Amino acid sequence: MRLPGCTVIASAVALALLPMQASHAGFFDFLRGKKSDASKSTGPSRRAAPARHAAPARHLTPKNAASSLHAAVTKLRSVKPHQAAGEPPPSRLVARKCEPAKFLLVVDVGHTRKSDGALSARNVPEYDFNLRLATRLVEKLKSEGFVRTRLMITEGKARPSLFERVSRANKSNADLFLSIHHDSVPDKFMENWEFEGKKSKFSDRFSGWGLFVSRDNADFEASFAFARMIGKRMKANGFKFADQYAMPVMGKYRRDLLDRPAGVYRYDDLVVLMRTHMPAVLLEAGSIINRDEELEVASVERQDKTIGAVTDAMKEYCGPSEPPLQAAADRK
Hints:
Elements lengths: L4 H13 L44 H17 L2 H4 L20 E5 L16 H18 L6 E3 L5 H14 L4 E8 L7 E5 L2 E5 L7 E4 L6 H17 L19 E4 L4 E3 L4 H4 L5 E8 L3 H8 L1 H19 L5 H8 L1
Parallel strand pairs: 1-2, 1-3, 3-9, 6-8
Antiparallel strand pairs: 4-5, 6-9, 7-8
């Protein structure tokens, strides 16, 4: 049914003047944070968003009503299709100026020795892959001037360790959080084989690296931007990204793909992403259940390229420091 013109105008004006309000990948459910029990959790709560003050209401006159209607229509026409569908807008890869020597990046080693994550095709715990890559990454970043970069190793059982690492990261007032993992597949894709006389499982069906961010993070935009910076460099290295997470066959493990070229997915209820008070990204550096890729990610060459991708992304994210002489001149 078509409404009379005057009714449409009145409705649009009313809507325009309403105050606006802010309204591991892997396959281990204990990694996820349940929103329904968030209030019951003893873990650290997320930083509350600052209150937004509504603009004072204006007295409507024919003149400002027409102006408001024009502004409302212009705004609606400017909305991109992905915004109308509720998807995040493309993140701007804008460098944030900082001093590398003062920048605190926490590099989290995924899982613990007691709960060591997925098992590779050759029976090596994921934790070993994570620890090796994260340790070498921290060494590289420190050598590049990010001297405060911290390696986070957590002990204990799986779920309690998640809240512990979040608490430690928040208390440290870190500027950025990066969790290092290596990927596997759901049990339904597993096949049996023997390696060195021991029974094992593998899946060569899927491979690749992936990046994950949470909409519920305290700074989603910065998280998304940093993930894209890593992703575009991983792609430039010729590495395949784990596109299977966007496929219906993944069932409950399917994720929203935010940026295909950069390999960035949305995983809102992952504890280490949603509860950290700083921008946070989870990197799945490759699949260790895929027999060929397991050998690749274990190689120094592949590790060096992954470390290089993250290091270069850090430099872009942080941005060049302003030269002291130029800064002094600008203040005059």
